Structures are given as C-alpha cells and as structure tokens.
Request: fold
Amino acid sequence: MTKPKALVLSGDGINCDQETAFALNLAGFEPQVMHTSELLKEASKLRQYRLLALPGGFSYGDEIASGKVLAIKLKEGLKEILHQYVENDGLLLGICNGFQVLVQLGILPYSEDRQRKLASLTRNSGGKFENRWTRLVVDRSKNTPLLRDLEQFDLPIRHGEGCLTLGAPGANLEAAEKMVLDGAALRYETDINGSFDRIAALTNGKGNVFGLMPHPEAFVRWTQHPNWTQFKTMPAEAPPGLKFFLNAYTMTVAG
Reply:
C-alpha cells in the first residue's frame, strides 16, 4: 500500500519540523520536510500531499506577534490554493506556532467568511513562557476524528503566547464567541495561560483543520513522559501523541 504523503514546513525559526516528521513517519506517512520559501515559490506542490503540518517554533522570531509574519507570507504566496486544499479534504495541522499561524490567517476559528479573523493567541496571562506537561480533556460533542480514542491525556506545552482571546479589530464578539466555542475540541484541565474557556485546540466543522497549542509530536514514545520510570509495566497502547498522528493517518487513507 502506498503511504500517504505529508508535507512538513521548515525554516526561518520553525524548530519542531524534524520531531513532527518523525511522528508522522511512525504513524505510517511518507513525510517530506520542505523549506517555507520552496513551497511559496511553487505553491501547486501542495496538491501532492494529503497532510500539511505547520510545526512549532518561533517563525520569523515572532516579530510583530507569534505566527504573524509566516501567516502574511502564506496568505500572499498560497493565495487560494490553501483554501482549495482544505475544501478538497486535505488535512491541515497547526501545532503551537503553527496554530498561531492558522489563527492569524483567520482559518481558525472557522467561519464562512474566509480569512475573517475572530480571535487571537496572545501573551500568557501569567506573563511568562510556559514549558511543562499539562493534562488535557477532549470535548466529545465536537467532530474530532484526530482525537478518536482519547479522553484525558498529558502533552507538553512550550509557549509564551498561547492565551486564546476573543475578538480582533472589527470582529463581532458575539459571533467570535460562537465560532470559538463551536470549534473548541480540546481544553486544559486547569487554567494554565488564561485562554478563553481553557481552550487548547480548535477545529473546523469537518475536522480536517486542527490547531493546538500542546505538542503531540513530543509524546510518541512512553519514555518521553517525565513519569515513565514510575510505570510498573510499559503501556501496550500507543502514547497519546502517537495516537493523534495515527488518527490522522486513518483520516487520510479513509478519505
């Protein structure tokens, strides 16, 4: 069986591309790491892939705001191709900085009015960079095939601007709240950064666009968990991060 191809963006401050490609490979994909400038030079290449991953890091040094410069470049360089990709059921993942990019683009939270920004990811309420493991809770009322067989689980976070805030210049707050709550797929068990409704991830209605602040690519082996030495026996099932990417694989081969 031919492996589904996954494209992982790299370059200009992105620093989780290799981790993300490794996780995708474990899950059954054929990942290719591509510098952002190469994709922007020939945007039609995107059509060759079943999954596009925007990994974590500090793209363009977080100038202006986290993810802002990369979002501007993608909006200009990919034009309609990225929207066509999503409309044709391509899987689009944004992890940490990648999630910030999707929010800057207005792709998440999803609205019928494309590219209308309804929310922002701003500086953590505690005023400091958070780098730790946290417990997450899945919202089962949402269409979240990427979170199939996951309920409550741990993932690491590494961000300074992860506070999901309603509204943006010109946005209707009531509409923004509805769209954000409609797309809320994953929440922090406790408030760790001031995010509205403790939201850690957003998805679109079809479930093929997904952005999250925690890092699933950093928990694809049980030994990556800080408490793994306390396990009496190593769990037989896949770790939560790997399950996330296995679910992505299932979505691409079933589509």
Observations:
- The longest strand covers residues 130-138.
- Residues 1 and 251 are 15 Å apart (CA to CA).
